[in-house]
Amino acid sequence: MTTQQREGSLEAPTRHPLDWLSDDFYNEETLNKELERVYDICHGCRRCVNLCNAFPTLFDLVDESSTMEVDGVDKKDYVKVVDECYLCDLCYMTKCPYVPPHEWGVDFPHLMLRAKAIKFRKGQSKLRDRIITSTDRVGKLASLPVVVTVVNKANKSKSLRSILSKIMGIHPDAHLPEYHRPNWRQRHKRPDTMTDKAGEPQKAAGKLAIFATCYANYNAPQLGEDLLTVLHHNNIKTRLTPDEVCCGMPKLELGDLEAVARAKEYNIPILAKLVDDGWDLSGIVPSCVLMFKQELPLMYPDDADVKKVAGAFYDPFEYLMLRHKEGTLKTDFKNALGKVSYHAACHQRVQNIGQKTRQALELVPGTTVEVLERCSGHDGTYAVKNESHAAAVKICRPITRKIQQSAPDHYGSDCPIAGTHIEDVLSGEKTAEHPIHLLRIAYGI
User: Fold this and answer.
1) Residues 314, 291 share a domain
2) Among 143, 113, 351, 141, CA closest to 251
3) Burial 33-55 (b: 16+ CB within 10 A, else e)
4) Which residues make beta-bridge pairs with 206?
5) pLDDT single digits (tens) 356-380
6) Which domain holds residue 52?
7) Fewer CB within 10 Å, N- or C-terminus of the chain?
8) Sheet harboring 236-240: ordered strands across?
9) H or E segment at 114?
């Protein structure tokens, strides 16, 4: 009797814990066997060819090999595919028919993560990559008095950017974020109460503690202000977390899992205490939210505090739409938004919460939303590197073409870094606006 093999799976994807503490996880021989197995499956399928540059790189290696099969690819070239993956997770969640519970059990992103972790442990990661993924440390340094002015001017200087390209491998045309002093946390040293214009405490419909994120804290404090303003308008009591370090997502993408562990040991006790005190949790950057909702629970499946924090973490628009479902979200909008081209960020999409941002914006009368469901190709660091900037721009082109064709009144992304990348590829034709800022405009506040 033969067992019938399924061509694909119609079941919901199942994510298995990441066995990153085992010795075999860092065994290069078993890694290469698994890479060959998965690469062979991908070669026979090729559904993901349009997602990112990892798959075209793989298929070119196969097609240019002596056998035109994976067995003809030099194992030394396997890392070329790994270097093109920035763990957006879209192949796992939206394309691959062979993810668990299918018997082939393909988890391409976490296989790439394993390869990155081995590469990092072997000391093969570039100094540049170790620096630019240290977002918290770089942010603290770059936002010091005097330093912040120098850094911001240097990032806009063509001559200095040319030097930076030669020394550090940072592409001269890539957008580098501005740094701010005071940062968001310095502006809200005791943001644990909410008051109305007269200074009287308001009755809160919810309690939401905000994980500031490195980007909102150092690079886009106005984004944080927009978030707090919208939450306050909806009578939601807010505060920033008492303290925090980087969520760990940049280091995860580098493969520095020990750094992720250190960030977890610092952040989780603080966040778990907030949950115990009755606070829900949120953050304005989807990657940071995903880190706490998915990646840390997969790294620490038996940690009760990690589970507790994951269960209390919400995307901001997910939280707002839950309030709407309960009848407590204000809909006293004063301004129509017209036509909005909205880029759904990859790390928000893979949270499996549905199109909450679109739903929230469509509550505004006189507003239509066009959803762009393609990766922008930025990834936080991928688009700034010399070797991958051109690919990041190419990946973004389908999004910018749609925006140009639609000629919207507003466009933007849940991921503020993706938004600036789209703006750059559009050559600054129009400024990208985060959806939370659009909601503030709609409220007229």
Assistant:
1) yes
2) 113
3) eebeebbebbbebeebeebbbbb
4) 236
5) 999 999 999 999 999 999 999 998 8
6) 24-121
7) N
8) 236-240, 206-211, 280-283, 313-314
9) helix 108-121
